[in-house]
Amino acid sequence: MDFGLSHEQQLVVDTVRGFVEHELQPLEREVERTGRVPRELGREIQRKVRDLGFYAPNIPEEYGGGGLDHLTFTLLERELGRASMALTVFWGRPSNILCAGTAEQRERYLLPCVRGEAIDALAMTEPDAGSDLRGMSCSARRAGGDWVINGTKHFISHADVADFVILFAATGEDEAGRRRISCFLVDRGTPGFEIRPGYNSVSHRGYHNATLTFDDCRLPAAQMLGEEGRGFELANTWLHATRLTVAAMCVGRARRAFDLALAYAAQRKQFGQPIGRFQGTGFKLADMITEIDAADWLTLAAAWQLDQGQDANRAISQAKLYASEMLGRVTDSALQIHGGMGLMDDLPIERFWRDARVERIWDGTSEIQRHIIARDLLRPLGA
Ligand SMILES: Cc1cc2nc3c(=O)[nH]c(=O)nc-3n(C[C@H](O)[C@H](O)[C@H](O)COP(=O)(O)OP(=O)(O)OC[C@H]3O[C@@H](n4cnc5c(N)ncnc54)[C@H](O)[C@@H]3O)c2cc1C
Questions:
Q1: From the CB of 362, is ligand 1 less than 6 Å away?
Q2: How many Å lie between the centroid of ligand 1 and the Cα of residue 123?
Q3: How far is the CA of 115 from the centre of ligand 1 (A)?
Q4: Is pLDDT of 33 > 90?
Q5: Which residues contact 308 (CB under 8 A, 6 or more apart)?
Q6: Helices 7-19 and 70-80: angle between axes, nearest 10 degrees
Q7: Mean pLDDT of 9-36
Q8: Which one in 106, 122, 200, 332 has a CA-CA gap of 20 to 30 Å to 66?
Q9: pLDDT at residue 2 above 80?
Q10: With contact defined as beta carbons under 8 Å apart, do 116 and 46 qualify?
Q11: 5: which DSSP letter?
């Protein structure tokens, strides 16, 4: 494993960091205040990122994307983690499973996402099926040459601005009585498909979730993505990619909180000296940076493993687990170091602390990551 960044990787890091600091961070207070990103502003961000040549960086070049390898893309996501989540929606990173579509599906769904003309959302979770996705009850049944969808999805991120959703639904059962899951592409405006505002969350204001209902929603057979009954494999491809993204963004967010805490500890004086000189504060800083670096290496190592074509599932779960839990501890310490001011919305610290909470829940909770890691450890022993 090479620990140095190539010229291209350093360029990606510097360019994304510059954009985040100069173009996105100045918008954050307004997003927090209003709880939304106006559509026009979203389009402007898309245009600027396209001009920068960094749109759809995760999609292979043959489809017009940036074609970054996993490690370089992870470095990019780490920098994007320094921006408010609501603003990063418009830095197009289409779902990589769209590449699994037919030529017609790629033309109609993937390419507009790559060009910044469409946004996708991905719908798996249901009110009664979260961690246990195979327990989903949203169903698709055959009707002539079509599929008819019925059911509800909730917590679906940025579906409010999405042009279409990648939907997972049960299409029967296998011999063992387990639900067979298939994947569909559903356009906004399809009769029987409704997108309603979701819940308000303490984390990531302005980054909305939606509730989707399907009421006898009829789809032509050509809207199925991938093979019938193979949706779980597609879901796992997507989950691995996003879990690594979550880990990288957690590292970026933690470094931003740490930078503020370090500066404050050096500048804030009590009892006639900077509070960082007190062991209680200095040790906090030492623990914070050690944990951030550890999470960073776990994340980069998982990305590197993917680039080597190795099975990185356990490494990705370890990175997601550790980085998201680390972010909770680091933002809590950053707030403590700021004292009462840390709780006030004059500073972004309280926001970092609130935002951190969701990272241990979405894209597979910490318990589910531990479950994946333990299963992988025990499998070779036949347990
Ligand atoms: C803001 C937000 C945005 C989201 N965006 C999307 C999206 O775009 N698309 C999408 O499909 N989903 C999305 N999700 C859903 C997210 O992935 C789920 O919330 C998550 O997988 C957990 O499911 P759940 O909330 O139903 O919790 P549950 O599965 O009900 O879990 C409740 C608790 O039980 C624990 N638990 C469950 N099973 C086990 C087990 N086997 N062992 C140990 N503990 C267990 C969990 O760890 C958790 O602590 C989003 C969620 C949030 C909060």
A1: yes
A2: 13
A3: 31
A4: yes
A5: none
A6: 20
A7: 96
A8: 122
A9: no
A10: yes
A11: P
Compute how many other C-beta atoms are within 10 angstroms of the C-beta atom of residue 114.
22
Note the pLDDT tens digit of each residue in 185-209.
999 999 999 999 999 999 999 999 9
- Pairwise CA distance, residues 160 & 123, whole Å: 12
Q: For residue 44, what pLDDT is reported?
A: 96
How far apart are the CA of 263 and the centre of ligand 1, in A?
Answer: 36
Span 93-97, mean pLDDT? Answer: 94
Position 92 scores a pLDDT of: 92
Which residue has the CA at smallest separation from atom 53 of ligand 1? Answer: 362
Candidates 208, 365, 372: which one to mutate for ligand 1, based on the most atoms within 8 Å of Cβ? Answer: 365
Q: How far is CA 255 from each of CA 80, 259, 292, rounded to the nearest angstrom?
A: 12, 6, 7
* Distance from C-alpha of 125 to C-alpha of 133, rounded to nearest angstrom: 7
Mutate to test the pocket of ligand 1, among 134, 362, 366 (most ligand atoms within 8 A of CB): 362
**Beta strands, E only, the chain:** 120-123, 139-143, 146-157, 164-173, 179-187, 193-197, 209-220, 224-225, 269-270, 273-274
pLDDT tens digit string along 159-173? 999 999 999 999 999
**Cα separation, 122 vs 113, whole angstroms:** 13
